[in-house]
Specification:
The chain has helices at about 60-70, 75-90, 95-100, 110, 125-145; strands spanning about 1-5, 10, 15-20, 25-30, 40-45. By secondary structure, it is an alpha+beta fold. The protein has one domain (about 1-145).
């Protein structure tokens, strides 16, 4: 997968994550934070909708979760709790090797099977939402190590 950052030459993804619905998530080298060499940028390509590589927008997957909740509240809330636990589970990238093997930090596809009925609602698959959120969490934690809740007081309540 290729992406052209503003004012820079095209770059190739460090890795691509193929999803069941032919969508691909690309992880690119970033340049921000305390460790710019370990920063990542998340993009995706959905060939059924566009040939253009896009940035996953928070508002899109949040609205998608609301649509899923409207149609299957119990399972969606279970999925949201699963997503919430990602923050505690995932750690920042600490080496170039870890960055190149970031896929090893992501949820196992079998773990997501219990939520597959939610794929019938909204636009995004459970797999897409999970991997995008996991990559965003890793990205944020890597950019600002010890910036987010260094005292572990980050237990959020799930609003139902």
């Amino acid at each position: 997968m290729e992406w052209k950052p503003k004012g820079k030459d095209k770059i190739n993804s460090l890795l691509e994550i193929p999803l069941q619905d032919n969508v691909k998530i690309g992880v690119f080298q970033g340049s921000k934070g305390q460790n710019p060499e370990l920063d990542i940028v998340v993009k995706y390509l959905d060939p059924s909708k566009s040939k253009k590589v896009r940035t996953p927008k928070h508002i899109h997957w949040v609205i998608d979760l609301l649509i899923k909740k409207e149609n299957h509240e119990t399972l969606t809330m279970e999925f949201i709790r699963y997503l919430r636990e990602i923050w505690d589970r995932l750690q920042p990238i600490k080496s170039k090797e870890e960055q190149l093997n970031i896929v090893n930090k992501l949820s196992n596809k079998k773990e997501l099977d219990k939520f597959k009925d939610l794929n019938n609602y909204g636009e995004y698959s459970v797999e897409f939402i999970t991997y995008v959120i996991e990559l965003f969490v890793i990205e944020e934690k890597t950019e600002a190590i010890n910036c987010f809740f260094p005292d572990k007081s980050h237990k959020a309540r799930i609003i139902s």
